[in-house]
Design a protein that fits this description.
By secondary structure, the protein is an alpha/beta fold. 38% of the residues lie in helices and 17% in strands. The protein has 14 helices and 14 strands. A six-stranded parallel β-sheet has the order 2-1-3-4-6-5, with helices on both faces. A six-stranded parallel β-sheet has the order 8-7-9-10-14-13, sandwiched between helices. The longest helix is centred in the N-terminal third of the chain and has 15 residues.
């Protein structure tokens, strides 16, 4: 495993001083180190991978220097649009380094949402004629140098690929003080929600990450698996799945979103506001971090979600700070498009499970009728 400090220092020695991307669990030590250096380097946590490429493009246009974009391979789809229509040598020829955390790499067990793109990653890069280097502890310095040389020479993006456990994980300081907060955690609210009589027959659609995993845990304990859809991939799109279900079902649909997911594709809220489905209760868990990737801050921690929801056309928007407020709201007879913004503390239960069942089975038992 590689010391993150040495990795970043080598990049800096080669002239890389700008970093932008979306948090990823494979790259967690790398991103955490960048966050610590925020005051001494240029680092932007983007809303999504395509935006990270656009930010990096703007940096190159302004400074004529090579930026680095980081992402996990499941975010490559978001990045490909600006990479092929803006950055490409046949368009503006913008050089950059793309550091990819390889989820679902061959012979490395991973979650089902990576079963397609993981094994196909290198084939996809080859199909787009992108130069890439697969890094390990022995070659990373040499390959970083080659990648930067290639990007400068051909004015194009060059990829660096790292597998799980490439970076050495720093030991956490046991004496570090925990952040004091008056807020409860997401799991506390989910437990109350699924037990609420007013939602005994509701459908629950959860965003990727801890939100979906916690819904799985609570739903399984309460034997409500047939009412739950866990959007294990496609971050930011759970609310669109919930919208279309609500327009084709008589049941109430509870969308369970995270702040990172909302920010990734915030334009989705406009469509929810347009159709004003009275069957939707949209719950936003706001803890201001990308929790499942290590707790890195979301792109913007200071958004006024209430104004955003109202501006998109939601009829009722409430901010929730405690369980009593939450119980009062979910127990009401809902007849208008409603959003509940719940301020929560980061953290989850110990040994949080992942869905063990095949996604096809989970789809089959999900009952919208």
């Amino acid at each position: 495993m590689i010391e993150v400090k040495n990795f970043v220092k080598h990049l800096q020695n080669k002239g890389i001083e700008y970093f932008s991307g979306v948090p990823d669990s494979v790259l967690t030590p790398f991103i955490d180190y960048l966050v610590k250096l925020d005051k001494t380097i240029k680092h932007r946590i983007a809303t999504n991978e395509g935006s990270a490429v656009a930010l990096a493009s703007g940096y190159h246009l302004a400074k004529k220097k090579i930026p680095l974009v980081y992402l996990q391979n499941s975010g490559l789809g978001n990045a490909l649009s600006p990479l092929t229509s803006l950055v490409d040598e046949k368009v503006y020829s913008i050089p950059m380094i793309i550091l990819v955390g390889h989820r679902g790499a061959p012979n490395i067990p991973d979650e089902p949402q990576h079963n397609k793109l993981g094994p196909e990653l290198l084939k996809i890069l080859k199909a787009h004629r992108y130069k890439y280097f697969k890094l390990n502890k022995d070659n990373y310095k040499n390959f970083i140098s080659k990648a930067i040389f290639e990007a400068k020479k051909k004015l194009c993006p060059v990829f660096l690929i790292v597998d799980k456990n490439f970076f050495k994980i720093e030991k956490k300081n046991k004496k570090a003080k925990k952040l004091k907060t008056k807020f409860l955690k997401r799991y506390d609210y989910l437990n109350v929600l699924l037990k609420n009589k007013n939602h005994s027959k509701s459908l629950f659609v959860a965003s990727t990450g801890f939100t979906g995993r916690e819904l799985y845990s609570v739903g399984k304990d309460l034997k409500k698996e047939s009412q739950c859809f866990y959007n294990i991939g496609a971050m930011g799109h759970a609310n669109q799945i919930g919208l279309e279900i609500s327009l084709n079902s008589k049941k109430k649909v509870v969308i369970l979103d995270g702040d990172g997911a909302i920010q990734m594709h915030m334009g989705n809220l406009a469509l929810l506001g347009k159709y004003k489905s009275r069957n939707i209760l949209h719950v936003l868990f706001n803890n201001k971090v990308h929790e499942s990737t290590g707790g890195q801050p979301v792109a913007n921690q200071h958004l006024n979600y209430s104004l955003i929801f109202k501006g998109c056309g939601y009829d009722i928007v409430k901010t929730i700070n405690n369980l009593n407020q939450f119980i009062k709201e979910i127990s009401k007879s809902q007849k208008k498009l409603t959003a509940l913004i719940i301020n929560i503390a980061p953290g989850t239960i110990k040994s949080l499970p992942r869905p063990k069942e095949n996604p096809k089975y989970l789809k089959r038992i999900f009952n919208v009728i």
